[in-house]
Amino acid sequence: MISDRVHDALVIRTALPAEAETVAALHLRARSTYYPDGVPDAGTDWTEAWRGSIERPGARVLCAVQRGRIVAVASFRTPDGAPADTVKLFQFHVDPGHWRSGIGTALHAACVEEWRADGRRRAVLEVHADNRRAQAFYARRGWLPDPENPPAEGDHHLYLRYAVETRE
After folding, report:
1. Is the pTM of this model over 0.85?
2. To which H or E segment does residue 21 belong?
């Protein structure tokens, strides 16, 4: 039946403010994998932070939904003070139980398509220095170290950039 195929299909759509708690829980599960001593608690209310990202004018939060559950999320916008053709990928998380299933690849492709449609030519991101899995994921998709932002001594993040190619 067609309803069975749709039920199993991966759908990528804009996240809703009411989904902020679900997104924050996914975010915590994903981040927990690269903090061997546990995710640092900086007192951030991640549900409210995600709700703010979802509701922020000019920002986008995409989520990948499979079988009625959010299984991945990406948040991006133009960073403050950056040129209008630059976008920053602030968050990109796939639920660890869905790694290596193609969901991250599909979500990344959806982000690139949004950037292309919005006239973005350059994307940037920060990735945790200990998150080798994410670094490899980004490298396979064409992200490169950002020569304008080399890591400083003791910095816990690497800065990457991506050339958003136009389609003729």
Report:
1. yes
2. helix 20-31
User: CB burial class (10 A; 0-12, 13-18, 19+) of residue 165?
Assistant: exposed
Q: What is the dihedral of CA 59, 145, 129, 118, to 10 degrees?
A: 10
**116-161 confidence digits (pLDDT tens):** 999 999 999 999 888 899 999 999 999 999 998 888 888 888 999 9
Which among 105, 115, 113 has a CA at the least distance from the CA of 77? 115
Q: Catalogue the E-assigned strands of the chain.
A: 10-14, 60-66, 69-77, 86-94, 122-128, 144-145, 157-163
Comparing 112 with 150, which gets the higher pLDDT? 112
Distances (CA, A) of 48 to 18, 42, 92, 140, 156: 11, 14, 17, 32, 24
Q: Which long-range contacts (CB under 8 A, 24 or more apart) does 24-32 make?
A: 24/49, 24/50, 26/70, 26/71, 26/72, 26/73, 26/93, 26/95, 27/73, 27/91, 27/93, 29/95, 29/96, 30/93, 30/94, 30/95, 30/96, 31/93
User: Encoding tokens for residue 107?
Assistant: 């979500």
